[in-house]
Amino acid sequence: MRGYMRIFWKENRQFFALLFSIVFFKSAIADLSSISGASMLPTLLDGDKVWVNKLAYDVKIPFTEISLAELADPKRGDIVIIDSKVADKRLVKRIVGIPGDTVYMQNNALVINGIAADYEVVSQEGNSVIIEEHLPDKIHQARLARGFLNRSGRSYGPTVVPDDQYFVLGDNRDNSADSRTYSFVPRVEIIGRSSSVVFSLDSDNRYLPRGERFLSGLD
C-alpha cells in the first residue's frame, strides 16, 4: 500500500501542486464572484461575473479573515464583496459611508457629513429612474423606483458610522437589502474590491453571453 501511495504521489504531485496553487490564489489573492439578483442595477446585472481583488485592502491568512497587514482603506464609492455574517451570505454593495461619517437619507437623497449629494436624471425606464449620484470623489449611476414602492426604506438616520465599519448601499435603492437592513459592515467581513466584469451570461435569454459586458470596467 505504501509503495502504491509513493507511486501515486510521484505521478500526480504536479497536479496537486497546481491545485493547491489555484486554491491558494482564490483564497488570498483574487477570485470571481457571481452576481445574482437586481440589487446593484444598473451597475451590475444578474449573471455578471466580477473580478474580486482580495489584496485591495488587506493581506489575510488564506482561508481565514485574519489580517496580516492593511494595504489601504476602503473608500466611498468602492464596490465591495462582503462575507456578511448577519445576512449569512455573500453581498455585493457600494460603500457610501466610511468610519466617522454621519450618513442621512431622506426620500433616497443622501446627505454625508451635512453635505447633500448632487443628482442628475440620466433616463427613465418604465417604473424606474436612472440617476447619476455625486458622492465625494465618486460619480456613479443608481436606480430609483417611481411611485411609492418600498417607501419606508427611502429614509434612514442620521447615524454615525463606527470605527472599522462601513455603511453600504445597493445601487438599486428601492430593491436592495444593505446597511439599512443589516446595519454597518465590519471591515473584517470585506473580502475585496471589484472594478470590472469578467464575463456575463443573460439568464433571461437562455444564458447567452452578453458580449458587450466582457472585461468591462465598473464605475
Q: Could you describe the 3D structure shown?
A:
With 219 residues, the chain is mostly beta strands. It has a single domain (2-217), classed as Umud Fragment, subunit A (Ribbon). Helices cover 14% and strands 44% of the residues. The protein contains two helices and 19 strands. Strands 1, 2, 17, 18 and 19 form a five-stranded antiparallel sheet that branches. Strands 15-14-6-5-16 form a five-stranded antiparallel sheet. Strand 3 (58-60) and strand 4 (67-70) form a beta hairpin. It is globular and about 70 Å long. It starts with a helix and ends with a strand. The mean pLDDT is 91.
Brief characterization of the structure:
The chain has 219 residues and is mainly beta. The chain is built from two helices and 19 strands.
Write the layout of secondary structure elements.
Elements: H1 2-28, E1 30-34, E2 48-53, E3 58-60, E4 67-70, E5 79-84, E6 89-97, E7 102-106, E8 109-112, E9 115-116, E10 118-125, E11 128-135, E12 138-145, E13 156-160, E14 165-169, H2 179-182, E15 185-186, E16 190-194, E17 196-202, E18 208-209, E19 216-217
Antiparallel strand pairs: 1-2, 2-17, 3-4, 5-6, 5-16, 6-14, 7-8, 7-13, 8-9, 10-11, 11-12, 14-15, 17-18, 17-19
